[in-house]
Amino acid sequence: MSPFIEIISAPDNIAIVMMILMVIFFTVWAFLQAFRNDAMRRKGERIEGEGDGKTDSWKPLVRIEFVIALIVFIGLTFWSLVVDAPLEELASPTLTPNPAKAPWYFLGLQEMLVYFDPWIAGVVLPTLIIIGLIAIPYIDNNPKGNGYYTFAERKWAILIFCFGFLALWILLIVIGVFFRGPGWLWFWPWEAWDHHRVIYEGTTDLTNLVGIDSRSGLGFFIGGGLVTFYYALGMLLPYLYWKKRNSEFLKDLGVLPYVTISFLFWTMLALPIKMFLRLVLLVKYVWVTPWFNI
Amino acid sequence: MKQKSSYTPLLFAFLSLLLLGLTFWVIWKDEVQLRPWKSYQQEYKELKGKKLQEEYDRAKKEFDSNGNARKLESLQAKLKAEEDFFNSREVQEKYKKLRGQLDIIGSSLAQNQKKLQETRGRFLEAEYLYIRDQKEHDKKVMQRLQGGIEELKKSRDALLERKKGIEENIDELTGDAEAIRAEIMSLHKGLDEKLAAIKSNERTSPEIGQIHISDVGKADRCISCHAGIESSYRLSEKQPFTRHPASFVFLENHPVSEYGCTFCHHGQGRATTSPDKAHGWVDHWTEPMLRGSMTQSSCISCHGDIEGLRGAEFISKGSKLIKKYGCYGCHMIPGYEKLREIGPVLAEVGTKVNYSWAVNWLQDPKTYYEAARMPKFFFSQEEAESITDYLFSMTGTTRHDTLYTDDDIDWDLAEKGKAIWRQSRCNICHTTNGKGGNHTEIHAPDLTKVGSKVTKEWLFNWIRDPKKYFPETKMPRYRFNDQELAALVEYVVSEFQDWDFEPGYEEPVPIKAESIEKGKALVEKYGCFGCHKLKGMEEMQDIAPQLRSAGVNVAGGETSEKIGAELSSIGSKPVELLDFGKMKDSIPHDRLSYVKQKLRDPRSYRDDLRMPDYRLSEEEIGPVASVLLGFTDVSLPVRFIIPSYAEIEELEGESDRHILSGDFEKLEADVKCLNCHKIGNHGYNYAPDLAIAGSKLQEGWVRKFLKQPDIIRPMLKQMPRFNLDKQDGMIQGNLADSEIETVMKFFRSDLVSDDIPVSLPELVDNGAVDRVLEGKRLYDKKGCVACHQIGNAGGSVGPNLSFVGDRLTAGFVFKYLEDPQRYNPENVEPNLGLTERERVYLTRYLMSLKQEE
Amino acid sequence: MSMLDRIKKSVIWKSIFRRDYKNTPRNRALAIFGNIFMHLHPVKVRESALKLRFTWGMGGISLFSFIILTVTGFLLMFYYHPSVEKAYWDIKDLEFQVPYGIFLRNLHRWAGHFMVIVVWLHMFRVFMTGSYKSPRQFNWAIGVILLVLTMLLSFTGYLLPWDQLGYWAIVVGTNMAAGTPLLGFEGPFSEYLGITPYNDVRFAILGGSTVGGNALLRSYVWHCVVLPLVAVVLMAVHFWRVRKDGGISGPHS
Fold first, then answer.
1. Strand partners of residue B697
2. Contact A97 B576 (CB under 8 A)
3. Do C205 and C174 touch, CB atoms closer than 8 A?
4. Distance between CA atoms of B328 and B321, rounded to whole angstroms?
5. Which residue does chain A place closest to C190, by CA atoms?
6. Considering A279, B440, B632, B695, which has the largest number of Cβ atoms within 10 A of its Cβ?
C-alpha cells in the first residue's frame, strides 16, 4: 500500500484528495436537498425559501461571511504550516520526467490525449466545453427548477451535467493523478511505479477490424461516414421522436438551439464512446484522413 | 437570525483564539523551528566565550606571576605623584591661565582661517574674470588679494608659533603623566585585547552567514551553522562546530571566502532550515554532500592533473587505476583520450603464443597469473576457442601448441643466459615467481610461466626488436648479439615453465571457418580492440559496433563513440537515467552506489551487459568511482581552471613528445629512458628526475655512469645494461660512445636550469677561514649526519654523500641548500634557513668529497 | 465630556464614519451602502439566501481566496525575478532566507489550488439550483469566463518556480496548443497556411518555440498583471449582476 500513500501524500496531491472529498460531500448534499424538495413539492408543501421574508445584510449576512472567511483563513494557514509547497529540481529542458504531467486541473485533458489526438483533446474539446457551459442557460429552456435544488423537475439537465462534470472531468483528473504512471501507463495504487515497464498494445483503426484499410479510399469514406452518421442520426432520431410526440420542449427550443444542444451532447458522449473503443476494442482512430484523424 | 446570536459570540471567540494560536505557531516556526542556526551560533558563542575567558584567565595569571603586577603598581604610584603635583593649587592656577591664552589663540586662528578662505574665494573669482575678459582691473584686484593672502598666512604662522610655545609650557606642568599612562597602557595591552575579544564575542548576535560567488551562482550559507570551520580554535569535536581538517592544504589554497563550501562538498548551500536540507539529503536535490575522501571528486572540476596533487591522494590512486586497467579503451573518459591501448598488439599473436594457453587465458586470466590486468569476460570454452581461432587465423590456419621439455633445452646456453638476465635487470619491470616488478607503473607482463606461453622464435625476435612486433611497447631494445639473445631466450624458456600446462594441440589441427566468423563476432561484440590493436578493426575502436550495425551514418568521427558508456559527465547523470535493473531493490539509488556496484560486479544490473569483470577490490573501487563521479557537466568560470600539463602543451602548440628532440629522441625511443626517469611531466618517478640533470650533474660523472652504471644502489634500482661487449661476453660497456655524446648534448641544451649558477658566489672573508673546514663544522653542527652517510657514518634517509663531489655540480648544491623543496616539492629534507655564507662553506665542503684517485 | 465622546464628535471622526453605532434600521442600511467594502451587498437579503446549505458559501470563499492570493502574491513579487537564471534560486531563497517566505509561498500555492476547487464547486452549486436560468443567463456566462480565468491564473503561476514540476507541466500543457487546427503547427490543415513551430499559436503563447526565458516572462506578466486585472473587472461585473438580477436566487421568483 505504500506507493498509494506516497502518491496521496505528495504535497500537490493533497489538494486533489481534498477536492475528491469535497465533490463527494457536496454532490450528496445537493442531491439530498433535491430529493427532499421534490418530496415536499409532491406533498404540496412549501419548500425552503418559498415566500420567505427579507432581512438586513448587516449583520446576519456580514456575520456569516466573516465567520466563513475566518474558517477558510484558519484552514489555509494550518495547511500552509503543515505542508510545504513542492519545489523539484531546477528546470532542465533535456531531462524529461516520466511521467510528465500537466497541472492537476488539466489532467482530464491530458487523459483525453489517450483517446484523441491533441487537436481534439487539447483544443477542440476544451473550447467546446467552455462554449457548452456558456450556452447552458440559452439551451436549457426548462423554466422549472430556478433557484432551488430539485431533481424531478429537471432530470435530464442534471443527469447530463453531472455526467459531464463528475465522470468526464473530475473522474478523469483522479485517474490522471492517481492511476497514471510512467509512460502514462495504468498503475493501480498498490503497484510501484516501474519506469521500465513495457506494455504493447497493438492498436488498430476501426475499419481495419472488419478488414478494410483505414488509409484506403474506402476506409476514408467508411470512417467519415460513421462520424457523419453518428451526428446526423444523433440529431435526427430524437428530433423525429419528439416531433411525433408533438413535444412542447422541441417547440419552445427552436431548430438552431436544438442542433447546438444535440451537437454538444453527442460530442460529450463521443468521449466515453471513444474510450470504450480504445480500451476494449483497441481502436486508435475511427476516421483517418490525410489531414487529421478522429 | 435571532437564534444565531446566542452562539455566534462563542464561535467568534473560539475561531479568534484558534487564529491567534496559529499566528503564534507561524511565528515560532519562522523564528525558531526553521532557523536552527540560531541555536547553533548561540552554542558556539558560548564555547568561544569560555575559551576566550580561559585564555584571559591564563594571561592574567601569567601577568600577575611574572612581576608585571608589581611593575604596574610602581607605575601607578608614579602616576599618582605626577597627578598630585599637577593638581596642586599653584600649578592649577598657572595651567588655567595658559589654557585661557590657548583658547584665545584658538579663536584667532579660526577667524584667520575663515578670512583666508574668503580671500581665496575672491581671488579665484577675480582670476576667472581676468582669464575671461583680460581686464587690467581684475588683474589689480588679483594682486591686491594675493597680498592679503600672504598677510593672513604670516599672521597664522605667528599664531601657531605662539600656540606651540604655550603648549610646551603646559607640557612642563603635566610632566611625565602622559608617558606613564602610555606605559601602563602598553603593559596592559595584551590583557585589554583579550578582554575586548570577550566583549565583542558577547556582543555578537546570531545572523545568517553567506558566501556569495556571483559568477558561479553559489550562495553558501554553511557557515551559519559551521561557525568555527575556519577558526584557529579547536573548540569542539561535535558537529557543526569542528574545524576543517587539514586546512593547511584545503582552506589555505581554497579560502572559504572565495570558494564557499559546496564548491567541493556539494550539498544545498542555500538551505538554512534543517541539516538534511543543507546537506542535500532530500528529494529533488541532485548533489548531496560529499564527505571525506569522496570530496576529492570535486578536485577534477578545476585541476587538470590530479596525480600527485596534494590532498588528492584518493583520486590520484583512482586515476592510476584507470590507467592501469585502461578503462579509456572502451569508455570515453575526459583527460585520458590520448593514452594508448594497454594491451599488446594481437595481429600476429598466432605466431607468439600457444593455442591452449590463449584459450585458457581468455576464459580466466587469473589462472595463468593472479595479478593479471586482463579482465574476465565469462567466455565459455567454445567461445574462447572461437576467439582464439579468429586471432590465429590472421597468421595461420591451424591450432597449434609448442612445448619445451628438458630435452629441448641447451643447459649450457641457458646458464650463460642467466648472467645476461641479471645484467639486463629484467626484474625491474617483470615479475617472476612473485619477485621483482618493483617499477609498478610499467605493468610489464609476469614471466613466471612464460616458457609455456610463447615460442622461442617469437621471444628471440621480440627481444631483438620489440617495436617491430608492437610499435608502442614500453620494452626497451637491448643491444644483444644473436648468441646473447639465444642464450637469454634459452634461459627464460628453461627457467620459467608452467609445469601444469597441458597442451592440446602439439599436433596442429586445422581451424574451422565458421569458428573464425563466430570469433570475429565475439571480438566485435565485446570490443577487444578497446585494449588490443587488431588488424581490420582499427577504426572500430572509436565507433560502437551497434551504431554501425544499426545503420547510423557516422560522419567524420563527429559522433564517434566508444563501446562502453561515455563517462564524460557521469557525475551529473540524473539518477533516474541510471538503470538499476535487477539490483533496484538491493542497493541505494544514488550515483555513487551505482558506479561502485558496476565496478564490483559489472553485469549485475542486466544479463546482457558486456563489461568484463576486473575483480577490483573495495580499496580500488572507491578511488575509481570517485574519479569517475568527478566528471560533471558543470562549467566553471575560467578563473578557477588549472589546466593539465598536456593541455598547456597543446595550447602552446607542442606535441606530446616534443620535450625530446633530435638524436636523443631516437635513443630514448630505443632504450626507453622515460620508462624510469622523469623529464618535466613525462616519464616515471622510478629513477632520478632528469629535468635539470644538465645543471645538476657533473659531465664527467654522467659519462662514466652511462658507460658503466655501477652506482651503489639496490639491484633493482640499478640502471640496466643495454650493451654487452661483443668480444668475450664480458660486461664492459653500456651505451656506445656516440650515444653518450648524444645524451650529453641533450643534457647541455635542454636539461639545464637558469637559476643554478655556474660558480659559487664570491664571499669577502674576514680573515683566512678555511672554507672546507668551516663547511665540515657546519655539516656536523646542523645535524646533516642524522640522514646522510659519508664514509661509514651517518643515517640512510638521504642519499649517501661519500663521493658527492664527483657527481653534483657546486651550483646545484648551493641552490639546493637554500631551498631543498625547490626542485621537488615532496622532498623531505628540512629547510635549515642557511645564510649565503653558510651555504657557500657547506657546498665547498661537500664538493671536496671525492673518490680518491 | 469624555475623551472618547470628544473624539466621536470631532470633524475627522464624523467625516470617516458618518453615523453612530445605534442598532436602527437606518444604521443597518448605512452600514452596508455607506461603506465601500460593504456596498456590494444589498441592504436587505432574503432569509433563504443566508442558508449555507443552499449557497455553500462558495462564491464568497472564491473571492476571499482571491484576496489572499492577491496579498500573498503581491508580497512574493518583492522576492522574485522572472528570469531563467534567478527564478528557481529566488524560490529557494524564499524558503531559506526570506522571513516567513516559505509560509507566504505555501499560502499562495494552497490558496490557489483551493480557489480552483471552490470555483468548480460554485459552478456545480449554481447549476444544481438552476440559478443560471432567466434572468441570470449572462451572469452564468461571466462566471464561466471567471472559472476559465481562475484556471489560467493557476496555470501561468505553475511555471514561475522554474522547477521540473512546473516546467514540464507547462511543456505538456502548451504542446496541446501546437495541435490547434489551422493555427498550430501540428494541427490539421496548418500546412496550408504555412504554419511552422516558429509562427504558430504555441509560439505566440511561449514567445519562442520552446519553453524558455520568454515563456517565463510571459507567464509572469499574464499571472501578475493581465489575468488578475481582467478577473477583477469581471468579478465586479459578476457581483453587480448578482444584485441587478435580483440577488441570490431562490424559489420565490
1. B808
2. yes
3. yes
4. 11
5. A291
6. B695
A177-230 confidence digits (pLDDT tens): 988 888 888 888 888 887 777 777 778 888 888 888 888 888 888 889 999 999
C252 CB neighbours in chain A (<8 A) are: 49-52, 147
Contact in structure between B323 and B339 (CB atoms under 8 Å): yes
Which DSSP symbol is given to B509? Answer: E
Q: Establish if A60 touches chain B: CB-CB under 8 angstroms.
A: yes
For C58-244, CATH number? Answer: 1.20.810.10
Q: Do C89 and B219 touch (CB under 8 A)?
A: yes
Please return the burial class of A112, using the count of CB atoms within 10 Å of its CB with bins 0-12, 13-18 and 19+.
buried
Q: Domains of chain C: which residue ranges? A: 1-31, 58-244
CA dist list (Å): A99 to A107, A139, A168, B70: 12, 40, 21, 83
Contacts of A144 in chain C (CB under 8 A): 130
Question: Which residues contact residue A172 at a Cβ distance below 8 angstroms, ignoring those fewer than 6 apart?
Answer: A107, A108, A111, A112
Pairing mode of beta strands B211-213, B218-220: antiparallel
**Cα–Cα distance measured from residue B721 to residue C126, given in angstroms and rounded to the nearest whole number:** 103
Q: pLDDT tens digits, residue range B498-534?
A: 878 887 888 888 999 899 999 988 988 888 888 888 8
Are B15 and A78 in contact (CB < 8 Å)? no
The CATH class for the domain spanning B662-750 reads mainly alpha
Residue among A55, A74, A86 minimizing CB distance to B22:
A74
pLDDT for res B711: 59
Give chain B's mean pLDDT: 85
- Residue where the block lists cell 436544438: A258
Residue C26 dihedral angles phi and psi, to the nearest 5°: -65, -45
C84-120 residue pLDDT tens = 999 999 999 999 999 999 999 999 999 999 999 999 9
DSSP secondary structure letters along B525-552: HHTGGGTS--TT-GGGGGB-HHHHHTT-
Q: What is the CATH number of domain B349-542?
A: 1.10.760.10
CB A172 within 8 A of CB A108: yes
Considering only the beta carbons, identify the residue of A74, A86, A88 that sits closest to B15: A74
CA A172/CA A274 separation, integer angstroms: 14
Task: Please judge whether C187 and A123 are an interchain contact, meaning their C-beta atoms are less than 8 angstroms apart.
Answer: yes
Q: Determine the CATH number of domain B771-847.
A: 1.10.760.10
- Identify the pLDDT of residue B554: 39
**What ipTM does the predicted assembly reach?**
0.92
A89/A154 Cα distance (integer angstroms): 50
Largest CA distance in chain C: 86
CA-to-CA distance for B727 and B721, rounded, in angstroms? 16
Of A70, A78, A81, nearest to B15 by CB-CB distance is: A70
Nearest to A61 among C45, C95, C134 (CB): C45
Out of C176, C210, C250, name the one closest to residue A122 (CB): C176
Q: Where are the alpha helices (DSSP H) in chain A?
A: 2-8, 11-42, 62-82, 107-112, 118, 125-139, 155-162, 171-174, 206-209, 217-244, 248-253, 255-280
Chain B residues bordering chain C (beta-carbon distance below 8 Å): 1, 26, 29-30, 34, 208, 217, 219, 221, 268, 270-273, 277, 284
C175 within 8 A of A108, measured Cβ to Cβ:
no
Q: Is C28 on the interface with A (CB under 8 A)?
A: yes
Q: Is C21 helix (H, G, I), strand (E, B) or coil?
A: coil
